[in-house]
Design a protein that fits this description.
The protein has 353 residues and is an alpha+beta fold. The chain is built from seven helices and 18 strands. 24% of the residues lie in helices and 22% in strands. The strands form six sheets. It has a five-stranded antiparallel beta sheet with strand order 1-2-3-7-4, covered by helices on one side. Strands 9-8-10-16-11 form a five-stranded antiparallel beta sheet. It has a two-stranded antiparallel ribbon with strand order 5-6. The protein is globular.
Length: 353
């Protein structure tokens, strides 16, 4: 199936289905000499694992990564890096009753219309399980960025209409939602629990920041950095919107408010989100993504089967009540991959500075 590869210089292909034997990624273009171990990757994979709270999925995958190629004596070789993560806790019987039925909000209908033959077990390739391969590949990109002093962090900005007003990054490891505003964490947890008890789900907003990006990254006109970031983040199944800096708020500003004044010491503000004309300014990159509610709900829903007959569907299985916070490392991974790709493109054009 085409469309499984991202990047020009730092190229990542993910593979595998939710209930297949494994998922994984192949990374081509990673420079040689970068220290890399399974633990480097599993550290990021642990961020994606279920929290153990009632509103988080009960599927328990160990997510132990096997590095099959591209690394020798703990350092990258410059050759393709192949990563494999076994699926050990798939429970395919939960989906037996769904064979031939299109679940509302899922990719079943569109995949069937495109291919005529789909894996109904957990969504197959369209499952959120695919994102574990992205996180693994993103961890490799993060190692490359770390050698250049670039850090990427994602956090919870909003869940179910509850908005984090403060941005205290030191608070992220102090709560299970990785929310930077301690004043709203309990309220977020309450709305999540209420949604779970009612058989429903919630959406939310994730903010991603990248610090240490040098100015000059981005390829005008059709591979602007912000355009590639938007494309990468929109490829995450739950994401329905992306904005940078002031984002949609810029449409309600005047030019005198929105323009980031440039002073001898640097920019006076960052409404642009760290990108002008598709090229980094050297400021912090600020990106937000809107995530839809998880489509797997236990409430009754009306749908159709493959013959077009109407069906009343009640979902079974193990599902999250919200993609947040498990989507945070996925967002980080996509941003890491895009920045790594543009770093290597800039190196090819101007040399490594």
């Amino acid at each position: 199936m085409p469309g499984n590869t991202i990047g020009k210089m730092f190229r990542v292909t993910t593979w595998g289905e939710s209930h297949g034997p494994a998922v994984g990624a192949v990374i081509d273009g990673c420079p040689p000499g970068i220290p890399l171990s399974p633990e480097d990757i599993e550290k990021d994979l642990r961020k994606r694992r279920p929290s153990g709270l009632p509103w988080s999925t009960q599927r328990r995958e160990e997510d132990e990564v096997q590095i099959l190629s591209g690394v020798f004596e703990g350092r990258t070789l410059g050759t393709p890096i192949s990563l494999l993560i076994p699926n050990k806790d798939a429970r395919s019987s939960d989906y037996d009753s769904l064979k031939g039925i299109f679940r509302p909000g899922h990719g079943d209908y569109t995949y069937f219309k495109k291919y005529g033959h789909i894996d109904h077990r957990g969504g197959g390739r369209a499952s959120a399980r695919e994102t574990v391969a992205r996180v693994a590949a993103g961890a490799v990109a993060r190692k490359l960025l770390g050698s250049e002093g670039i850090e990427v962090v994602a956090f919870t900005r909003e869940i179910g209409g509850i908005v984090a007003r403060k941005t205290l990054l030191e608070e992220l490891d102090q709560n299970p939602l990785r929310c930077p505003d301690p004043d709203v964490v309990e309220e977020m947890l309450q709305v999540l629990e209420a949604a779970r008890k009612s058989g429903d789900t919630l959406g939310g907003i994730v903010e991603i920041r990248a610090r240490g990006c040098p100015p000059g990254l981005g390829e005008p006109v059709f591979h602007k950095l912000d355009a590639d970031l938007a494309s990468a983040l929109m490829s995450i199944g739950s994401v329905k919107g992306v904005e940078m800096g002031a984002g949609f708020g810029a449409s309600r500003m005047r030019g005198s408010q929105c323009n980031d004044a440039i002073r001898p010491h640097g920019f006076a503000s960052n409404n642009a989100g760290g990108v002008l004309a598709g090229i980094t300014t050297g400021q912090e990159l600020v990106v937000r993504v809107a995530c839809k509610p998880v489509p797997s709900i236990s409430k009754e829903q009306m749908t159709i089967d493959r013959s077009g007959e109407e069906v009343c569907l009640t979902m079974r299985g193990r599902h999250d009540s919200c993609v947040i916070p498990r989507v945070l490392p996925v967002c980080e991974a996509m941003v890491c991959m895009v920045i790594a790709d543009h770093l290597l493109m800039q190196r090819a054009i101007c040399g490594w500075k």
